[in-house]
């Protein structure tokens, strides 16, 4: 037994120790709350001037401008609500399209329209599918504008068609699957409450509340990257970080994962395009 200081009863020492631990825990919680408050203020400041608005304008111009070997615009592209109907379309994607027999997200559908309407080859349509600092992608600009046309609308991906329901199940399987050299999976970070990386809280995407919070702000301008990221790019990059096999754009596996997440997020209100750290 360790020596005790004379005149310090065990009960008193235990009380002092418990008090110290409680003080430290309270201090830690206060520091954490303060950090989260500062992050929230930082995000509010960013939202005041979202550079994605400029990219959104470019996307609208691209949508209406005749381009490609056939020199036609994308104005007759059917995003699920009928040819040329864009308002509210993003909020209801991914969805099943009878003309392709597939469930498609906004990006895979745009690639389809660029091929069938404008005459681009698959390689041409997907050549610059993501933006880099100083080199903006036409496809990303189009997705940004289309996303903005659903701003303020509720996400609605109920997965009523059998093909959509099947993709939700595939997406759920991918979400919970652990694989790769690190035996890693989406659910490790995003399948439970109260998880964080450094100062970043991680949403529980397996539950509607967390999925709605995460999915409502895509596509999103990423300040750290200096450009807009789409959901396909975000998920492909997540898989890269998990050391999974690299997905080729547009990826059906990613569309399935999007389908699962958007289905979970149904009912959430879009704030698109968003802005993130």
TrEMBL record:
Binding, substrate: 234
Note accompanying the cofactor annotation: Binds 2 heme groups per subunit.
Compartments (UniProt record): Periplasm
E.C. code: 2.8.5.2
GO cellular component, one term: cytochrome complex
Residues given in the record as heme c 2 binding sites: 186, 189-190, 238
Alphabetically ordered keywords of this record: Electron transport, Heme, Iron, Metal-binding, Periplasm, Signal, Transferase, Transport
Primary site of residence: periplasm
Organism (species): Oryzomicrobium terrae
SUPFAM superfamilies in the cross-refs: Cytochrome c
Listed name of the protein: SoxAX cytochrome complex subunit A
Complex formation: Heterodimer of SoxA and SoxX.
GO terms, biological process: sulfur oxidation
Cofactor(s) it depends on: heme
Signal peptide segment: 1-31
Cytochrome c domain boundaries: 58-155
Family the entry assigns: Belongs to the SoxA family.
Catalytic residues identified in the record: 238
Amino-acid positions noted as binding heme c 1 in the UniProt annotation, renumbered to this chain: 77, 113
Catalytic activity: S-sulfanyl-L-cysteinyl-[SoxY protein] + thiosulfate + 2 Fe(III)-[cytochrome c] = S-(2-sulfodisulfanyl)-L-cysteinyl-[SoxY protein] + 2 Fe(II)-[cytochrome c] + 2 H(+); L-cysteinyl-[SoxY protein] + thiosulfate + 2 Fe(III)-[cytochrome c] = S-sulfosulfanyl-L-cysteinyl-[SoxY protein] + 2 Fe(II)-[cytochrome c] + 2 H(+)
GO molecular function: electron transfer activity; heme binding; metal ion binding; oxidoreductase activity, acting on a sulfur group of donors, cytochrome as acceptor; transferase activity
Pfam families the record matches: SoxA-TsdA_cyt-c
